[in-house]
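Field: sequence (string)
Field: structure_tokens (string)

Example rows 1 and 2, in order.
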Amino acid sequence: MIRLDKYLADMGVGTRQEVKKLIRKGLVEIDGVRVLKPDEKVAKGLQTVSVDGIPIFYREYEYYLLNKPKGVVSATEDAKDRTVIDLIVSKRRKDLFPVGRLDKDTEGLLLITNDGAMAHRLLSPKKHVDKTYYAEVAGCATRETVQAFAEGVDIGSEGGEEWTLPARLEVLESGTTSRIRLTIQEGKYHQVKRMFRAVGMEVLYLKRESMGSLVLDEAMQPGEYRELTEKELELLQ
């Protein structure tokens, strides 16, 4: 059971104060019966709530697959830049957040949800969830680079050592600029860029392709998003 005003506020109808006004104006019904009390209790999923004749279905969790574009920050709010949450224009919940972060200039897969338990499972280093990236880097990636990443590299600074867990590096094309695919199971700050910097290379372009069982939908252009399919959600859970 949930208060009627919270039900409507959770579903993005308005703020708690705004939905209270709608209720007191007689614009809200529960199972076809007009309700005038904001604290009226509603059984989620068992009763039908409508506002001005439009049904409002309650959703406790929302899950969106976003192809994050460059120039957008992985945050819930920002005073200067557009955030990944701003891109989800069809959202109902106001408590959505990105699962992990991608740098401002990094593209690719980002899961947006309000399911904290799922986020913890995907981000916890103890869960060993694979995160795969495609990158173009300045420098020649070699067998030695692959071996170094497989053993772990020191991405620390003058403050001390900071070794990564073993990572899987696939060299797609080696040359002055190399094309690679990298799979890691961590999410340290600027980790991919720092890993290549540790072996004398510089990341020019970076895109996350997958996270656990969730794979970027190549049909989606940067900035586009969609809700997860039932199959995707089942695999993640």
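Row 2 begins here:
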Amino acid sequence: MKQSFKQSFQKLPLGLPLTASGIATIATIFAGKKIHTACGAVWGVLSILHGLQHAGKLKHDAEAAIGRTARKAAGTAESISLHAFLAGTDIASYLPGRVRVYNLALAGNEKLAEQVTSFIRSFDGVEDAVVSLPTGSLLITYEPETLRKNPHLANVEAFIREHAKIH
């Protein structure tokens, strides 16, 4: 397999030549101006190349770390607990029979959105639950009288009513 110049350069260890040219530059301080200048120029060029290699490696390592973190976060968001989900939920508006909440965990997360809407739709009295993936908004429509027959859901509705930003 043929390697490009860039690939070859990236793998070339510059530590030894850099060290040798640095020692040669120091050793030629009294040997003569032309030799000393030439050794210094080689040392300077190798230093620049070494810096470029190091910057490329740092960029590669950072991109790999960001990718690992993003994959881990996506996996976590798909299996978020109910308590963590509720803790990150902002109650935007409430009218009897209609509630809008926001949760950033829903933004762009189709799998979590499906899990949440299926869970909410499973309750008697809930007419629909719709997530807007771009915004993380969840609109829940329900029949208030039917929903309030379940004392736990009646308490949830009372909590939402008290904590909604818009009534």
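free_text_note (row 2): The mean pLDDT is 81.
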